[in-house]
UniProtKB/TrEMBL annotation:
This is tRNA(Ile)-lysidine synthase. The N-terminal region contains the highly conserved SGGXDS motif, predicted to be a P-loop motif involved in ATP binding. GO terms for biological process: tRNA modification. Ligates lysine onto the cytidine present at position 34 of the AUA codon-specific tRNA(Ile) that contains the anticodon CAU, in an ATP-dependent manner. Cytidine is converted to lysidine, thus changing the amino acid specificity of the tRNA from methionine to isoleucine. It is found in: Cytoplasm. Its EC number is 6.3.4.19. Keywords: ATP-binding, Cytoplasm, Ligase, Nucleotide-binding, tRNA processing. ATP binds at residues 40-45. SUPFAM superfamilies: Adenine nucleotide alpha hydrolases-like (SSF52402), MesJ substrate recognition domain-like (SSF82829). The gene is tilS.
Amino acid sequence: MPSNDDRRPRLTPAVADTRRAVRESLAGLDEGSLVLVALSGGPDSLALAAATAFEGPRAGMRVGGVVVDHALQEGSAEIAETAAQQARDLGLDPVLVRRVTVDGHGGPEAAARQARYAALLKARAEVDAAAVLLGHTLDDQAETVLIGLARGSGPESLWGMHPAIGFLRRPFLTVRRADTKAACGDQGLEPWNDPHNHDDRFLRARIRDRVLPILDQELGGGVVEALTRTADQLREDAEALAHFAQEQIGDLVEHAEGGLSLHAGALASNPPALRQRIIRLAVQSEFHTSLTRQQTLEVSRLVTDWHGQGPIHLPGIRVAREGSLLLFTAA
């Protein structure tokens, strides 16, 4: 009769990598905390659940799970319940199942993502979890960066996904998708393969199955790693710019009736990247509106190329140059 050691899954490189990534992500959370694993039943999230079930108790933490049923496929309730049972079998407790309605606003992928994150954060609040762990991999990061690059969405979109933001943590951003699949196989776990992941109606699926393989073939490999390195470098630069902008904004901003003002001369003395970030930050803070790059450049021209032109009308905001000041008021 085999011993317990004989029945225990062997520690393969893939299993070790997933556990190491989770261990590093949990660092800094208080002992006794509850962490939730967002679980779909796919290989990424199932490998994450297994690694967290192993590492969490060793760090003195409780581990639970939350399964979001998007109700977008036939049999989605059964798929969600199977994932929940896999989480329970791994020792996760509590395991929550939340069914959401995806309205399609902004496109199916964006709408599903918005509904999912809302459900995850609501579940976190219900059980007072310290963090929610997401199963995004290095490959997901590369896809995100490439999509942002193709759309010309600006530097923020090229940062990719952050390893930790608020209550959300992404331990696997250093782990390849192939390794999560291998980790599941090495531990005898049977993941669900979502057909939407390879449905060419969705942009991300086309990037995954068509674009990245061609780039890898034509450029000699290493594209996924190169894209993620780019994201890391851009994020570091952006965090530095954000720090400098935050430092300056207190000196540049004055509250005015119905809005705020910025000193044009002080803005002009800054490099364009910093000047434009200060403008966006000021508008976001006061009016809760995100300016596009084109809108930001229009405002910036009132600083660097002002020759008496009239105000700029942005959605819900009027921007005018009056002497040495830029005045932002609610329209």
